[in-house]
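User: I've been going back and forth on whether these two constructs are worth ordering. Before I decide, could you fold them both?

Assistant: Sure. I'll take them in the order you sent them. The first construct and its structure tokens:
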Amino acid sequence: MATMISEVYKAFIVAGVPEDDAREAAEALSAENLATKSDLQRLGTRFDSVAAQVNLLRWMVGFNLAFTMAVLWKLLS
């Protein structure tokens, strides 16, 4: 049998969740299944690097678009 957090189980029962569903939800939220602080920090670091890459791609697309428009303007005028 999996461990569960009794406070979460009681909160689900008070909220009107059926007992079987409350037990399964409390087991799913047990400490073994939760992310640790270091896991969250590692994810934050990854998202920071992804944000930097997206920012770089935005600048690259913007420059490419401006350059293409300048070339088309020169050719068509």
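The second construct, handled the same way:
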Amino acid sequence: MPDGLVAEFDGDKGIGTIRGDDGRDYFFHCIAIAGGVRTIDEGTEVVFDVVPGHQGRWEAARIRSS
């Protein structure tokens, strides 16, 4: 499970990116936030799983506050 920081989150669209400790950016949709929560603050430290996403990019899944 990588660690990271929520770099940006657009609550109206329900999408955002996490900057992983590996320096990569991972896209996520609000349904990927664990616990039924549909919003997350920018700057929140998180742990997450990486899964194959749309258009051949890796995405964050099962996002939890660390």
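Notes on the second construct follow. Residues 32 and 61 are 5 Å apart (CA to CA). The domain at 3-65 is CATH 2.40.50.140 (OB fold (Dihydrolipoamide Acetyltransferase, E2P)).
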